[in-house]
Write a structure and sequence with these properties.
About 0% of the residues lie in helices and about 25% in strands. It is mainly β and about 55 residues long.
């Protein structure tokens, strides 16, 4: 399981969940517990811009 922050909203994501994150919205993932968290990220075929934000 993971705590997922999307903009100002925080969710707990578990196996099988699907999250849609709009382009340009700041987001982050944080593992909850001792189990690894794996996810699949799909990005449209357009130029991708990644900005690293400091916390």
């Amino acid at each position: 399981m993971a705590k997922v922050t999307v903009g100002d909203h925080v969710f707990e994501a578990k196996e099988g969940d699907i999250l849609y994150i709009s382009a340009g919205v700041p987001h982050m993932y944080e593992t909850i517990g001792d189990v690894d968290y794996e996810f699949l990220c799909l990005v449209p075929k357009q130029e991708d811009k990644i900005d690293i934000l400091s916390c």
